[in-house]
Fold these 4 entries.
Entry 1:
Amino acid sequence: MKRLLVLLPLLLGANEDFISHYEYGEMLYNNPRGVSCSQCHGKDGAGTTIVEFRDIHGKQAIKGSDIRKDSLQAMIKSVSNYHEIMPRYYLTDEEVKAIYDYLQKKNENYLETSKENNSSK
């Protein structure tokens, strides 16, 4: 009986997730299928320079886009389609939603400030 009482708290907590929805989104964003979203879109989704080079037109740069303001539907569509540079990840809609929610939470202050600035114009 004593052993059962010791195990009872563990059994009661068995229904809880191992990681939170936020942590799951962070994990997927940082390494969804071997190529990190953050390598091109930056640690917070603001975009970053992937590579700089010179050609006949001078200095050029390939940059990852700012995805902080993208809608969930835009992200699902983008991840599901082929692009010249971005690999196709084959993420489920639920996985993209976790990434979307992670970016929304991570960028709360930026998005709120941006919303306020747009409404004051």
Entry 2:
Amino acid sequence: MNNHIRCLPTEDIEINCSSLSQKTNNSNLWKSLHIFWEKFLKKLLENPNELQVWQKVDRHGNIYWQAYDPATGKSFSSGSQADVCLWIEQLYRY
């Protein structure tokens, strides 16, 4: 019985693995640069006096909302999006 299995020399295996690793590293680098660029542009174009509202998750997995008005220095936090909307309406009512 003839066995037609041929093994690659060790050097070829190392080259193949390193080129695969290099492609993965390049892909991760470009992805990281893209994310950095998006965050940089967002920060650059952001109005510093604009009302900011964001959603957060605490260590227990509970979702809550935070709002901050740089013009007045006031902030608000609640588990309800409706409460945050009410706070904003009251803030700008006067």
Entry 3:
Amino acid sequence: MNYTIDSNVIYVEMDGQSILLNMESSQYYALDQVGTFIWNLMKDGRTLNEMEQEILLAYDITEQQVKNDLKIYIDELCRVGIIKDQN
């Protein structure tokens, strides 16, 4: 699965954290260090499988937990219009 960042979204990264602003809805979202790590993978065009593998390498977490947590995270970003599913 591939995801793209909505063209109405701008972001700023500082000290490993990010702020996303949806210019269309005027809503902003704060990402912690892990959220920013995943955001950067998405920004680089990684597929869902590639993101899962990178997270497994970077964090002490089970594969099932990565799949569950990443699905929740991506579903939320899609729901609020930050990213779009390209499949």
Entry 4:
Amino acid sequence: MPHHNTVFRDVLKLMPWRQFEGLVEEHDADARVRRLPTKSQFVAMLYGQLSGASGLREIVTALSSHGSRLYHLGA
């Protein structure tokens, strides 16, 4: 299957990830994370906001249907 860049990926490229990771480390945000690290949570919440999702279940369902593409987003 060929790889296609998405608009969502282009939006994520605008994020200053080094600064984000610095803040995560500074505030020890990933200290006791079991399954969903801060970056993945941010990506999910951003997707939910931009897609107009009405709840977490809708976000999870939508992201699950794009599981193979999440790898390319870093989530």
